């Protein structure tokens, strides 16, 4: 996750470089450090540095990392010739390197030659069974081919070994949600909440999944998680506010009698009578506060 | 006995400074040699997996109050149940890591290499110091010391009436040995092979790291009482919204 300051810094550098000021190299370094995906810009400015032999020699040993970065950006933009050239240069310099082997595998992937890419990756992973990037590339390949169940399988195998990798859990959760396997997705989101309990995104997603699952207990739990999202975001997340409202109305429908519950249902239906556009944020929040109290 | 001995400035020029310079140079030399001899050690998959398990179990312990009780309980059972819990290490296996470390040729070679690269320069320099720079007072320590230190700090000086603050060059060597660590981390960057003291400390606490960690995590996990924090959040959210409305 990129922090706010880093994001503003990145945008500032981007504007600066776009408008002709210098600083392309700092921008590329920052993009590489933060692992953001800006292929067109990286490609444009990276190539401008690489094609100018004076600037290239000024980089020193960082030149090769720049080649790698530009190669990946070129593959993203489908400029496969550029990527092939960069990889050739790297291969000449580092003939036995696994990192270059990985790039070549990625090039095969970008060309759509799945079988050969798979062969390349399996030979690389035999030499180095603990290379995380190769595992992730395999998952990405399976996903790109549309073979979601294979992607799930690979991802599960990856997570058996590297179970502290929260990005992988997140990917798995999204895949499960796309396949409507909500129980498994809930498990993944729980893992995410465990590893990063103060990120409201995961609470919100977990609450969504629980709400979708339905059933009284899940709805009540979902309501609690929407509330925690509101707390973590200071009340600014409209989705969480809406979520609470929907949860309480659903709970009211599921439950039969009881005075407390009818009050809840009443205030919720009151809200639902007004047309959606006319509801101001203030009214929404007043309703939320009432719902939470009961 | 507090008469002040006047030490020749030649001592400073020809003993203290050269000794420090030589030690710095030897440190740098060792750093480069260790870089050359570095064999890339392939991480053992089992150890990596155990490390990740420990991180996950630790997360579970730390944030247990954020997930529903049922999920927490199921995870706890997953980690610490008797048959195939991830953290469960049967008694017999617990002794393995250290034995394994000595029998595994690669690791033993690496450890030996590291040890040698530490011991040999130290021994050589120490012998050199003893041979050339002994038998005279090299420096004066600014604070007074008791008599017990005499044998340690004044080995070449056979006069028992000299104040213990006057030390021989052997003590200057030891001072440099431990003190130049800071200088090396400035010049050579953080991770350098000259970090002897750190490695010496590591040596003593080595060995049982993996399996003891697992056992410790399991115990910690068993102890945790799950207290679901989410109901509190509802009240807090209500307070937040009320504040926003005002």
From TrEMBL, chain A:
Membrane topology: Peripheral membrane protein
Domain of life: Eukaryota
Subcellular localization(s) per the UniProt record: Endoplasmic reticulum membrane
Family matches, as InterPro entries: EMC2-like, TPR-like_helical_dom_sf, TPR_EMC2
Keywords: Endoplasmic reticulum, Membrane, Repeat, TPR repeat
Pfam families found in the cross-reference section: TPR_EMC2
Start and end residues of each EMC2 TPR-like domain: 100-209
Assembly behavior: Component of the ER membrane protein complex (EMC).
Family per similarity comment: Belongs to the EMC2 family.
Protein purpose: Part of the endoplasmic reticulum membrane protein complex (EMC) that enables the energy-independent insertion into endoplasmic reticulum membranes of newly synthesized membrane proteins.
Name listed for the protein in its UniProt record: ER membrane protein complex subunit 2
Organism this protein belongs to: Hibiscus sabdariffa
UniProtKB/TrEMBL annotation, chain B:
Topological type in the membrane: Multi-pass membrane protein
Localization of this protein: Membrane
Source organism superkingdom: Eukaryota
Keywords from the UniProt entry: Membrane, Transmembrane, Transmembrane helix
Transmembrane segments: 14-33, 119-143
Assigned protein family: Belongs to the EMC3 family.
Protein name from the UniProt record: ER membrane protein complex subunit 3
